[in-house]
């Protein structure tokens, strides 16, 4: 059994890690680190964890973590992990960061996150943890940069199509929607009930920090620098994220030929489900699970392809994918601790 710790203990990403790790056969969660509530019971903030999690939260002690744990999950806001992960460089501790600290080049990070980047040496070591695409690289990684929630959904649909030369790389448009838990547990005017209830709110148009992340990893498969139009909308639901992607088809294709191609691309992958013709993903169809559902339609009148992908932002978009990466890094079954049927209705 490997011992794990989570930093950012009271956040939504951490709470989801705790839920999922509870049934993991090879990982024992031994430490929950909290800067704001060290010494307290997690159930004092989250009564749904009463009796289940009895260990008190602790303050951060790097030396103790180095000695006592094997896997470190960092579920902290951008700008935190880049100052912690370097301390583990000369240890065997596997670090998995849920934030954006290691997903971009230093220059891009400064531009889009407005913070000092991690050192080039550590950035170079970090592997982008899009589990179903970069599986081979993840196997030998010591630092995982878990992808953002929108990039997970967008790239899972886009990369196969770019890799197989199915779509024009110019003019890709991604229309994205997310539930409110994507913003984390902090209270704000933006996520206030009165603002979000019965409302759909476009936000960060042209400014979203996931734009360079999608472009960076899609470009690797395009063999050239690619740009995308990406718009995000906040919708009144707690969990769930959907990307509807529009692209021009390169050669003649039908809906069936695209779906067959995607099915083949992901045939070895347990968590990407290609839906049959005429059926499209819904956020409820993946809620509480580690699935990324993908559906497609080729409009033969316009030669345009519409691909829809849906995930649970907190599972496949964060904690679930982080655990999938831990499984891959340790040579365990990729599905270990993640075989949840979506919660329906
Ligand atoms: N929510 C989502 O759907 C997704 C989130 N992510 C990313 O995962 C990370 C965690 O997100 P999420 O859990 O939603 O965010 P939250 O805001 O819910 O939680 C983050 C937690 O980090 C701790 N924290 C806050 N500020 C600091 C600080 N300055 N130094 C150290 N710890 C701090 C706090 O916990 P405590 O006081 O207990 O230490 C806080 O509750 C973020 O980087 C986010 O962008 C990625 C994909 C999806
Ligand atoms: C609703 C909402 O605000 N969602 C956040 C989710 C992004 C996120 O989790 O940010 P990282 O890049 O650190 O992963 C957003 O759109 O910015």
From TrEMBL:
Gene3D superfamilies: Dihydrodipicolinate Reductase, domain 2, NAD(P)-binding Rossmann-like Domain. It holds the Pfam family Semialdhyde_dh. The active site is at residue 149. The keyword Cell membrane does not apply. Residues 3-141 form the Semialdehyde dehydrogenase NAD-binding domain. GO terms for molecular function: N-acetyl-gamma-glutamyl-phosphate reductase activity; NAD binding; NADP+ binding. Pathway: Amino-acid biosynthesis; L-arginine biosynthesis; N(2)-acetyl-L-ornithine from L-glutamate: step 3/4. Its main location: cytoplasm. Transmembrane segments: none annotated. Keywords: Amino-acid biosynthesis, Arginine biosynthesis, Cytoplasm, NADP, Oxidoreductase. It catalyses: N-acetyl-L-glutamate 5-semialdehyde + phosphate + NADP(+) = N-acetyl-L-glutamyl 5-phosphate + NADPH + H(+). Its EC number is 1.2.1.38. The keyword NADP applies. It is found in: Cytoplasm. SUPFAM superfamilies: Glyceraldehyde-3-phosphate dehydrogenase-like, C-terminal domain (SSF55347), NAD(P)-binding Rossmann-fold domains (SSF51735). GO terms for cellular component: cytoplasm. It is an enzyme of class 1 (oxidoreductase). GO terms for biological process: L-arginine biosynthetic process. PANTHER family: N-ACETYL-GAMMA-GLUTAMYL-PHOSPHATE REDUCTASE, CHLOROPLASTIC-RELATED (PTHR32338:SF10), N-ACETYL-GAMMA-GLUTAMYL-PHOSPHATE REDUCTASE, CHLOROPLASTIC-RELATED-RELATED (PTHR32338). Catalyzes the NADPH-dependent reduction of N-acetyl-5-glutamyl phosphate to yield N-acetyl-L-glutamate 5-semialdehyde. Belongs to the NAGSA dehydrogenase family. Type 1 subfamily. This is N-acetyl-gamma-glutamyl-phosphate reductase.
